[in-house]
Amino acid sequence: MGEGAMHLVQILARTNFRTALAAGVSLLAMPLAEVRAQDAAEQHSGLEEIIVTAQKRAENIQDTPISMSVLGESALEQQGITGLRDLMGGAIPSLRIAPFSGRPSALNIAMRGISSGDATQISRDGAIALYVDGVYLARVQGLGTELFDLERIEVLRGPQGTLFGRNAVGGALNIISKRPSGEFGVDAKVGLANYDGRTAEAHVNLPEFAGIRIKLDGMVSRRDGLVDNPLRGAWDWGAYRREGFRAQALWQPTDAIELLYSFDVSRDRSSPNYMQIEGTIAGGAPIALPPIFSLEPDRVRRARIGVPLEPSVAKVSGHSLNASWELSDALTLRSITAYRKLSQTQEDNDIGHQTGYRPNGNFARSSAARVDQDQFSQELQLIGTTDHLNYVLGAYLFNEDASDWAYASFVYRWNDDGTAYTVNNPPSGGVWPDRASDNHARSRALFGQATWTPAILDERLHLTGGLRYTHDKKHGRIPLLRGAPAALTYQFTSSRLDPMATIAFDFSRDVNAYAKYSIGYRAGGANGRSATYRPFAEEEVRSWEVGLKSEFWDRRARLNIAAYSMDYRDMQIDFSNPANPSAVETLNTNATAKIKGIEVDLTLAPFQGFTLTGSYSFTDAKIPPLVNPFSGVLANLRPAFTPRNAASLSADYAVPVGDMTLKLHADFNYSGTFPTSASSPVLADSYLLTNARITLADIALGGAPKLSLSLWGKNLFNEDFQTFRFNFGGSGLTNDRVAALNDPRTYGVELSTRF
């Protein structure tokens, strides 16, 4: 029975015969797309439609042939997600986020077994593209700051090279914030949490004036440390102070033209995570710790000694202008212009976990660094629609200039038996700075993607093709190395064509499948931590993916499944010098790595007010071994921040209580073991995190605006796992295994209002 005929039977069951016959004849003559649209309009229950812009146009996620997850406004609120760090627990199983080397001032983002490695280097790019309101962010520094009034986060899995460009070999994060409404409204929230946590934020929409809509966003957030620093006046570990402001102005001079200007500025002061001395290196040399230090196999609340510690400070600002012009009902010209500026300092102290103990020897290595970066980008898009063809044509320009420096010194000295220490005044170190570099990148691209839906097969078949031309040019230098003048330089140039092709078919109005082939590319560069400024080549990912997207049970259930296989060529791998872990070399693999996996997303709404969402990710990666350039030993490699199995489950229930609404939320996030770097021989522990939130909404207090009161808890069972785990084994080192842990149990209360 055809789909139009099936719809006719449903109509017959709920209306009289004459009306049904007329409607049925009309439906049988309609294309399937129109049947689906009319049926959706008649649908009054079930799951809400999710609109995404992963293909540069608004469309239903079920009609988008991409494996993706979306966190909408409600999910972000219920899970307490205000920044990328809040995704660290694994709410989206195939996406992993962790502070780089335990430092919250920079984030390591991984997806589908592909991570960026040490992307804190200005001469190296990330592997997961990050876009905020259409603007690409080139640096991972400064990403710890809370984001502003989000509408949704789209997680696009797998290479996205055609529409999102270079450095999207693992996928892309497409973050969209709310736009000015033009109607007066205030959305405000204050909160208190343990560890003396305090938050306040406000989002104000002003009434439209002279055709201009203005929206203002502001936030402040602070928390004391998770591990106390015994040194009076110094910062504790895991503390932060964050504040930010954004202003948007939307002007529509005509019905066809729209200009959205945005300015944002933020400051994030955060201290690093505490590095615990977990244990000794299996089969290694005897551990070299002083008598007053002991192993810390379990989470600690107080540091082993007090050391001078200042926060790392990120100052980020940016301007963007998003303009669109509807040339006709079927053709839109869009321009996205942006300038962004970043200044990020880094302050850290190893508290004696790195340098091996020796009588009267220096220890407590203090490291300081700074990155300054600015970028300009311009993107043009021509988005068109005809009866059977949707297309986007575009051009992209990107310029980046960055510089950095680093310096390390020792603030303490042991006595002759390791039972006490004295302060080095001034700290013991070489010439400042120890290292400095600068880097300059220029990228140009032309791209196009089109989807053809032929009139045959009741318009069920969709054929998509895409192509992107990219020309990259990068160069950099190290003028200072080990405190002495140097003349180390590198250059990188690449011109490429990266294709994409997809075949999609609608088996019914609620079930469709697709097969996709795509190529992603990450630029080459040089390792700024190398003594020779060693360059490395570009890498490439070729991906084959098949997917099924379906809705059933009267649209109260949604099941999406994707399976993929990827060839990862010239993979960029980092190796640390065992004698000096700060010295790092990046090599390309000689053979192709193989990554394959399955992703499953299931959402159920069995009855009014209740939603159950589950996701599962299986990843199997085979990376060819590579000779460690420092030891000369063949090293076995594994994908960083990639558990073989990961899953999440969340439940939400909303029920009326008089004139109020009670909202209950719980989520559970599981991860198997994984290494925190590809060449690391040790694994982070598996874990199961449990989070919950209870909200009483629409509380009326006389004539005042209605309030919402929420109680929340994260990591309710105080589960421990490592966000960074590393062996410090080598000549002059402690020969210990250290780790930075996830946040312990946190809980708090929030009061919000909206009017």
UniProtKB/TrEMBL annotation:
Broad class of the protein's primary localization: membrane
Signal peptide residues on this chain, from the entry's feature table: none
InterPro entries named in the record: Beta-barrel_TonB, Beta-barrel_TonB_sf, Plug_dom, TonB-dep_rcpt-like
Spans through the membrane: none
Name of the protein this chain belongs to: Uncharacterized protein
Keyword Transport: yes
Family, similarity comment: Belongs to the TonB-dependent receptor family.
One Gene Ontology term from the biological process aspect of the record: iron ion transport
Cellular compartment(s): Cell outer membrane
Domain TonB-dependent receptor plug: 61-172
Organism for this UniProt entry: Sphingobium baderi LL03
Ranges where the TonB-dependent receptor-like beta-barrel domain occurs: 318-716
Entry keywords, A to Z: Cell outer membrane, Ion transport, Iron, Iron transport, Membrane, TonB box, Transmembrane, Transmembrane beta strand, Transport
Membrane topology: Multi-pass membrane protein
Entry's Gene Ontology cellular component terms: cell outer membrane
